[in-house]
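Example record for the data management plan.
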Amino acid sequence: MSIQSKTISVKDLILWDENARFPDKYFNQDETELINYFLSKPDFKIKPLIEAVIKDFDLPQLEKIVVWNDGEQNIVLEGNRRLTAYKLLINPSLTTDDKLKEFLEAEKNKIVIFDNFPLECILVENQEDAFRYIDRKHYNGNNEVSWKDTERAHYGKRRGSENPLELIKIGITKIVRELDLPEEMKEQILGQGYVTTFFRTITTKPAQRLYGYYFEDSELKIKDKDFKDKLKVVIFSVLNKQDIKGNKIDSRTLNKKEDVTRFLESIKLDDKKVVDEKIKEKTTENIFGEKTVQIAHTKLKVLPKSTARKYLIPMSCTLRIQEPKINNIYRELRENLLIDDSNIAVPNAVGVLFRVFLEICIDYYAKMNQKIFKKEDTLGQKIPWVVISLEEKGYDKRIFNNINKVGSAKKENTYLSIDNFHEYVHSTTTQPCSSELKSKWDMLQPFFEILWVELNKK
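Corresponding structural encoding:
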């Protein structure tokens, strides 16, 4: 494995045309086309990124760019947006947008940057090593957890740049943590989804005036002696998305000061008793004595059918496969071979390659575990050995229910039977349908995931 840190000039780096951000039609396109595609999509936020680069130009790079040298060129596999920003600053003529070009020319004058401007890079010779960085950042979010409003407020205060609104948020958060409320309600109101509506309500001028907020040594103080009881009612109403009287409460109904004033002034001290009773009603206890309260109305997004995707393997399935041939087949089934409803779909090719992928994964696992199958051993004989091997390593037997059907069931009992897989290859009449293939993959994916997790321990 050849991985090294290296400084490379911007002029010696090129964008990756197979970046997941680019549609297929941009493969092998000129770099100018790729840059202008980035600029055409506001969600990529190239202009704000350029402004950030200029603002912090004097700071060392926080994150290195991941570069794969294919033997001829230095291709940026991770960091294409950043490279685009630098290339545009160096050469504003790369954009066809005259207004943006004018902006770039003006911004460029604030810094000194040429085409030999150096960027810190992680240079790899094996493309698979670069994919590991991409997996870490884009699939796993670099294992980072974004700050919430309260954490940003804490940071502002500790950095010495706090403002009164941030101090109110910090003070209110502290009070919420101390309230006699179920912990999950506190987490919900201070977490994503509700915190914006909550703070928009409780930190407004009407709230400050009604409850009498003031500061002593940067600490929030409140004149209203019943504030904590009223705060419980506010929290319950926001989570329940309606007040005690049943009126709707959300970001739209509380977007004006008069709406907030009306809501807060409607809260009476006796409402706290009603809230306590409702929380009690909505609290359940399991056989272990653990209590759960379901207050918030959670509207779940309806997911599309799993078989609505274009490829056999969903993009959410990330297998780390070190063996080049097996990995290439995996990537083709995941990214190249269409099985949708279009005229260019290739379900027959996918069916055959799915069957090949299954067998070579089984064989490779056996090989890496010092098991040599006989030439005459069938998949129906190989699969049980692999399953037993994995079960002995401590994996839940239920994970292997579907792969066991592949090895043992008759084709008339389930389409998972290996006999059906064989027909994709040998039958002159049987043709797989796209939805059936994708359903098969969905049922077998947990097995493949466990198999490759175990193989990556080797």
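Summary line stored alongside the record: The longest helix spans residues 347-368.
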